[in-house]
Design a protein that fits this description.
The protein is mainly alpha-helical. It is built from 9 helices and 3 strands. Strands 1-3-2 form a 3-stranded antiparallel β-sheet. The chain starts with 24 loop residues before the first helix and ends with a helix.
Length: 228
Amino acid sequence: MPAALDNSQDAAPADRLTAGQGVNLSSLAHRAITDMISDRRLRGGEAIIEARLADLLGISRTPLREALQRLEGEGLVRKVANRSYVVRHVDLGEYLHSLKVREILEGEAAALATGSIPGEKLTAVRHEILTLMQSTAYHTQAHWQSDDNLHGLYIDHCGNAVMAEMIRALRVTTRLFEIAKLKDRLQPDSTEHLAIFEALEAGDRRAARNAAQVHCRSLREFALATLR
C-alpha cells in the first residue's frame, strides 16, 4: 500500500537548486531527489507531487520531469496509471530474491576483479571504511558513499560489463529496502566491507569471493532477524 503523503515535499529554502557552470538543473534535481529517497524524505510507495516538488527545488516542471524519467530508468521511481510517479516500493520477498542473485554475481565479480584494482582506489576506500568505523556520529550519506565505493571496486573492475550492470540494478533494489534500517547496519557493513577490501588488497580471489558472499548472506539474515 502506498505510504501516506507527509510534509516531505513542502518547500524548504535549503533544498532550492541553483545551476552552476557545467551543471544543468535536471542533473541537480536528479541528485536532490535521489538524496530525498536515501534520507527517507520520500518513502517507498509515496506519490511524487510534481508541482510541490518543483516549488521545493525552485525549478520548473521540465527539468524535474527529465530527472524523474532518469530516476525511472534507474529503478528508483515508477510511473503509475495516471502518468504520475511514485517512489518504488521493495518488499521483503523482492529484497531476499535480489540478495540471493547478488550473492552469486558479486562473489564472481569480486574474484574477477582481484588483481585489477588500482592501488590508489584501494587506499581511498580503506580510508573511508576506517573513518566511518571510528566516527562518533552517524552520517547517512557517508555510509552510502562508503558502501558505493567499496562495492564499486569490484563492480567497476570485474571486466564484465553485463555483470556489472546487473549488480548495479540489484543494488538499487536492495538499497530501497535497506534504507529503513541503515543505521543498524553501520558496524556489520563496515566490518564485512573491510574483509572484502583486505581480500582484494591481498590478491586472494577465493577470499574475495567468499567475503562478498558472506556480506550478502549477512544482509539477508539481518533483514529476517529484524522482522521476527
